[in-house]
Amino acid sequence: MTTPQPIDVVGAGVIGAAVAWQAARRGHQVRLYDPLLAHGAAQTGASFVAGGMLAPYSELVPGDEDLLALGHASLELWPGFAADLEEATGTDVVTGRGTLVVGADGADVAELGRLTERLAALGHGRAEHLDRAGVRERAPMLARGLRGGLWLSDESAVGNRTLLSALRRAATEAGAEAIPASWPGQTPGRTTVIAAGHAAGQVLPAPATARVRPVKGEILRLRRRSSSPAPPALTVRAHIHGRSVYLVPRPDGIVVGATMYEHGEDRDVTVAGVRDLLADAETVFPGVTDYALVDAAAGLRPMTDDNLPLIGAIDPRTVLACGHGRGGVLLTPLTVAAVLAALEGTSLPAAAPADPRRFS
Ligand SMILES: Cc1cc2nc3c(=O)[nH]c(=O)nc-3n(C[C@H](O)[C@H](O)[C@H](O)COP(=O)(O)OP(=O)(O)OC[C@H]3O[C@@H](n4cnc5c(N)ncnc54)[C@H](O)[C@@H]3O)c2cc1C
Questions:
Q1: Rounded to two decimals, what is the model's pTM?
Q2: Ligand 1: residues within 6 Å at CB?
Q3: What is the mean pLDDT of residues 15-33?
Q4: Which CATH superfamily is domain 96-155+214-303 in?
Q5: Which of 162, 176, 213, 272 could form a disulfide with 24 if both were Cys (CB 3.0 to 4.6 A apart)?
């Protein structure tokens, strides 16, 4: 049985909006603060810019095994979370199922083999190896020269912009008060959830939030024209000349991402970023050249020193839900469950690696 509490949620990106929605649904009295709530379609938060992949397995890099476990746990919560959101708002946010990771040369294909071995050793993610013909069968529109691939059927993708607006709508319809302003600071008697993305350390200075920094990423949105070949209906990831690129399906085209730089709060989209993304996308999917380039954006991923998010209470009145790095969309359902547990004074075992007290 939930004990209703007055709660301030700071930040209405996917994390804050989802927390506000689910907390309001459980009867908490929620105020959701974000100056961007006044900006209509002119959003700049990472949640608006992102690619929307739910892809813990294809993102795995050595050393990030705890992050994989968090992503795996959250991916399992996604179907129920998406169904609840669809019931609340009538919006289906899922845009693609499965990830095809492709390799252009022998070294890329060998790397796919190592990824399969790492996933198998950790017991996560079903991975099916594909030869050249297998890749063509799954995605015949891709370049003929691709040497092989890996099919990860458990991964999927959502339309992050649709998700963001659906979550904000669900939050207010569930009773949360949306306040289009910066959070004024801690109010006696209220619990605060810090979901301010890369700005967490500025909003609430603390040993854990001091570990959050912005990592820039540029991303493109391409619309299919009547003359354009159909896009793949699945997420495609590739390594091209040492750079990675991904193509994420959308109802009207594809999202191509993403660059990654340590440039502080720089949000400019550079010529080099757009050039590299388009060149790599064309190498994988030549038909992309006929698409319309409709949006180029840069966002700031809220990265921590150990690539793990900060989710949980740091004192009886403050809960952190920030530092989600490259995977905040994926990690949204798990974060909500862990924050709700923290509001109840308990903890969610699956979220233990994200405990912010590891930095205190
Ligand atoms: C190019 C790119 C591609 C990505 N692709 C993926 C992907 O495919 N899959 C995935 O899972 N993740 C992806 N990510 C990561 C994901 O976008 C982030 O991890 C996630 O959006 C973080 O959500 P958030 O709500 O914490 O932060 P944000 O979306 O940044 O929201 C934080 C909010 O806090 C508000 N705020 C700040 N200060 C205050 C204050 N003082 N008072 C009130 N509000 C305040 C801001 O205005 C902002 O709206 C990508 C990120 C980038 C940049």
A1: 0.97
A2: 10-16, 33-36, 45-47, 49-53, 182-183, 195-197, 199, 203, 217, 219, 257-258, 299, 301-302, 322, 324-330
A3: 98
A4: D-Amino Acid Oxidase, subunit A, domain 2 (3.30.9.10)
A5: 176
